[in-house]
């Protein structure tokens, strides 16, 4: 009653008599006593400062490495996560450097773990960021993000599985999945006629505090012989097949229905006649979820290369018809009845080496981003006029590459009047034309970022552009100083006032370039 009375008082005080308007005004920071107002104002100021013409991004640090370089929330990891460098300082500086690890301790995958808000946790170390890593010897370790110290360790592989390789989130920062590599029998065993029915193992953990939920196997006898991969996301078990089929199952229902017995880390147990401790070497984790029958199917679709996405409002999914000739053609359909949306076939008709790509916008607006070599289309779902039960795809805005100086005439006339016909035409992603390579979204500043590249000869030039996420207007362009080779692998991170470019060259050579926001002055023209 007190809360309701306070809400009514707030409504009366600001002259707002509509709950929806009140919530909208609160989201925009109209009420100074709301918890997030100061943070939103600060981010708004940062966005304005960053997009000013006088603000520059300066290359403050560059490094090279013979091992992969990773970036997570202001931290740069090198030497297989043995070296950690902060990128938040005025110049990147070392946080910790551990001694070189043996090959048996090599880290296969890692996830950053951040403290949930408003929860009581058992250990003081749980309130600080940590890194969950998976080693080649099947150890799951939780490391302090500030010192690299091992806070917790769990041995995963018992007698059932020896090759855990992948970490992913089911529910971000809440439920984690550890997946094995696909089980394959040695050639000699296959020749002897031995059958391998278990394809993958999945271990499920609740995080902070780290607790074991269960382990299950993906078996041919239950899911079929042609399973090629499996994933878990947002409570859905996704099973992919060699013929392009994708099937979805309720993962939570599977855990509840087929769990034989629950176990806790550190608990003594007896499994198949062996006594051990859960999560300790050499017993590892018991496979306590046994799927004995095919779970109820939620949804299935057939798509080229198993490409399948769900999003939008109301729920829609994106697939490519399961034939090679349809590569680059995307169908947007209703999840409710599989009906194709009006204008739901998206085809840029690109003639390029690299295909265009499409995905639901990560800003939770329900929009769709479709990226081609020289065009980015932001699409939205809306009701068809006079047909409330039907949806159509409409263009929200487009971003076009700068190709004003590009001339690609198939017929030219020389000074003497001779007509010359070209025997070929340029591809849409020809390196000598400005081409979009990366599109990302910075959620805290609500900016859409794009990387466009032009390469002439061996010299490639790239620039990072910031666009208004609502209307697509260009707000800022940042030239990257280093040469960009389109044949190399690249990652670009835009994190508030930081830009970080990681490049992988042939022969496992890695480079990292860090840019930070600086105010331009007469003394510093960089």
From TrEMBL:
Domain of life: Eukaryota
Record key words, sorted: Membrane, Transmembrane, Transmembrane helix
Species lineage: Eukaryota, Metazoa, Chordata, Craniata, Vertebrata
One of the record's GO cellular component terms: Cul4-RING E3 ubiquitin ligase complex
GO terms (BP aspect): protein ubiquitination
Protein name: DCA17 factor
Record's keyword annotation contains Signal: no
Keyword Transmembrane: yes
Any Pfam family matching the protein: DCAF17
Transmembrane segments: 198-218, 230-249
